[in-house]
Design a protein that fits this description.
341 residues; alpha/beta; Alpha-Beta Plaits; TIM Barrel; 2 domains; eight-stranded parallel β-sheet; 11 helices; elongated; binds phosphoenolpyruvate; binds manganese (II) ion
Length: 341
């Protein structure tokens, strides 16, 4: 249930509503909005009696929340969320591009690619230091050394960095270095990791699981928000289907659905969806056309020598071309739909 306060409600009236909610054994989560404060009731098992709150001074209405997800839902917050990463804004009218190699392989590799993607117009640098690999014999990432290299990339280029925490064990370390902590597709329903992310003060990039429904994905985001972390960015990266012409099947229909259901920013990773370089630019064009808030793209200056995902990594010149193309599409999208902020 959402207890919506009147525009003119005082802070004391909001506090009184919170106190009444908590006295009933529920959790009250005030959500300040542009127009008014709404208080979300969490941890209720079974229906909540609205009449209890409707009599309180300053309370305008009590609306039942119809979805299992609450904090991520548009019912709760009609306005788009914007996640601020060291001044780079993600969501509501911004088209934010994260680019870099699949994995940080060396300082020279990461800095070379970072300079190139920055020049082309990328806003954030991506690169895995801890890699979730299918095979235990495959390159697992440089670990903390990789994180230190990412810190150098940030220092030299000014780009915030996004990198994955593959488990609970490495979360603290990753959080120290990263500007955005990524939770990968394989971990989308790792609930202890989601709870840890919920206690973080860093924004979280939450990838959609390989076979997750949109409801499961939003419920995973709910875990993070329930813990108190409001900086959640969703990332569609393709789901597993019968198709072999691409690594995964990019579900572009998820973008309008997520935007309808949730106020959270949602970006697209065409690289892990495609698995092949030649599909990345067309899928990116489609992603921007359907209204995503940004892209995460793998780029490598020597993809034939990459230690992971070389086949899907764009050459830097292709990345420049991609940015030119998506900017043009985004302008058209904004002219037709308005662009928020
Ligand atoms: C990645 O972005 O490095 C990655 C491993 O992606 P995903 O979790 O989507 O497979
Ligand atoms: Mn990769």
């Amino acid at each position: 249930m959402l207890v919506v306060m009147d525009k003119k409600a005082t802070a004391e009236q909001v506090d009184a509503a919170v106190a009444l909610i908590e006295s009933r054994g529920y959790t009250a989560r005030p959500i300040p909005g542009g127009q008014r404060v709404a208080i979300c009731i969490l941890h209720n098992h079974g229906p909540v009696d609205a009449s209890v709150f409707l009599g309180l001074p300053g309370v305008k209405e009590a609306i039942p929340v119809t979805h299992p997800y609450k904090l991520v839902s548009r019912e709760l917050q009609p306005e788009d969320s914007v996640v601020d990463v060291r001044g780079v804004r993600i969501g509501n009218g911004h088209l934010t591009v994260m680019a870099g190699p699949c994995a940080v392989e060396s300082e020279e590799q990461a800095l070379t690619i970072a300079r190139l993607v920055k020049k082309a117009g990328a806003h954030l640098f991506r690169g895995g230091a801890f890699k979730p690999r299918t095979s235990p014999y495959a390159f697992q990432g440089l670990g903390e050394e990789g994180l230190k290299i990412l810190a150098k990339v940030r220092e030299e280029t000014g780009m915030p960095v996004v990198t994955e925490a593959i488990d609970h064990e490495v979360f603290d370390l990753v959080e120290e270095y990263a500007d955005v902590v990524q939770i990968g597709a394989r971990n989308m329903q790792n609930f202890s990791l989601l709870r840890r992310a919920g206690r973080s003060d860093k924004p979280i990039l939450l990838k959609r699981g390989l076979a997750a429904t949109i409801e499961e994905w939003l419920m995973a985001a709910e875990y993070i928000m329930e813990g108190g972390n409001t900086g959640v960015i969703l990332c569609e990266r393709g789901v597993r289907t019968f198709a072999h012409h691409s690594r995964n099947t990019l579900d572009l229909s998820a973008i309008p659905v997520v935007r309808k259901e949730s106020h959270l920013p949602v970006i697209v990773d065409p690289s892990h969806a495609a698995g092949r370089r030649n599909q990345v630019i067309p899928l990116s064009r489609g992603a921007v056309a359907v209204g995503c808030h940004g892209l995460m793209v793998e780029v490598h200056h020597q993809p034939e020598r990459a230690l992971s995902d070389g086949a899907q990594s764009l050459f830097p010149e292709q990345f420049e071309d991609l940015l030119r193309q998506i900017k043009a599409i985004f302008e058209v999208y904004c002219r037709a739909n308005g662009c928020g902020e």
